[in-house]
Give the backbone structure.
Amino acid sequence: MYNALGISNETIEFVSKCEEECQAEFSKIEKACEYNSLKVLSSFHKNRVSESCFNMTTGYGYNDWGRETIENVFKDVLGAEDALVRSQFISGSHALTVCLFALLRPGDIFLSISGKPYDTLDEVIGIKDNPSSLKSYGVHYGQIDLLNDDFDYDQIRNYLETHQVKVIEIQRSKGYSTRKSISLEKLGQVIKFIKEIDSGVIVMVDNCYCEFVSSSEPTSVGADVIVGSLIKNLGGGIAPNGAYIAGRHDLIELCAERLTLPGEGREVGPTLGINRQILQGIYMAPSTVASALKTAILTSRVLEKMGYEVEPKFQEERADIVQNIVFRDQDKLIDFVRGIQEGSAIDSYVLPEPTSMPGYTDPVIMASGSFIQGSSIELSCDGPLREPYIAYMQGSLTYPYGKLGLMKALERMKRQK
Ligand SMILES: *Cc1c(COP(=O)(O)O)cnc(C)c1O
């Protein structure tokens, strides 16, 4: 059967050997998975999730019992005072945008302390000109880069002592950079530091790719508001779209009024029949995230043994589901990404080509053979064509499919040698 799929005995043996070395890491992942499952199940029970939650609303979406239950479940699972979970958020970037426009007013200062935020926010903030940016409304932007993969405490202190900052954004996952992702421990330290200098600053965390990787979320270490996408971790590979914002009740109310309209806020928003998928998605999410993590760990070990630099290494603690492989060679990066596409469920016969994308300076190559368009909790891999040619791989709905996808990628790399 393996051979029929184009996987050689040599590859099976090599990957199986690496897999054995990963067992201790896998059992840590299983523990976190069990704990997160416990959280989800408890919240289902507490909030009396029932079949009637799967009913849908149309039009304005008044009195959507299922939608309210979903938001209570997310609130509890994320350890937050409140949560807004909506399919009217078209992506994680949109939820981040709504959150920023909800919290900031003309003249306010917005500060990022984890370097430049995710690429899609360039035009939102006004780093790149756009007539609808925060900048166009008179919101000022400041940025402090990370220092040796940690926060630049001196600069943060200095900035906070000389500016009245309204919102600080921290992005945990690395995006298309080479830095490490930010652990909950480091996050907690910096939030404590910030609040000691200015307790009024709102700390907003971009939590994309990080949910359920460990057993708690940034709200437990003082984040005021956290944001994430449902076509990543918490959608469990089942939610068809949407995103969440969770955190302090007063801030969530502001976000709801910005998402819909002042005066109606969270009372409107039809669910059009997807409540069941969102509930089933968060129910599956602990396992889906565990599968993605195990796939990432195996990939890390395999590619490291083949002589490539990997980040994180297989035994390192992880803050997100993203695995970097540094190829230092354009063709190898392209082959690996094409191999992942070959090993995907959907469009496996399609050959990805590097193309330029809005918001990116270099051409990007992407493998995304997913059921849900652009879903990256499903097995996916991408990378900008620039030195040092890094592949960013993430996801897999199950570990066996992740392992098979990886083996297909190895075969493609062998063929192209
Ligand atoms: C994916 C991601 C986003 C944006 O999410 P989309 O749903 O793709 O818009 C924002 N920040 C980080 C760190 C991400 O990984």
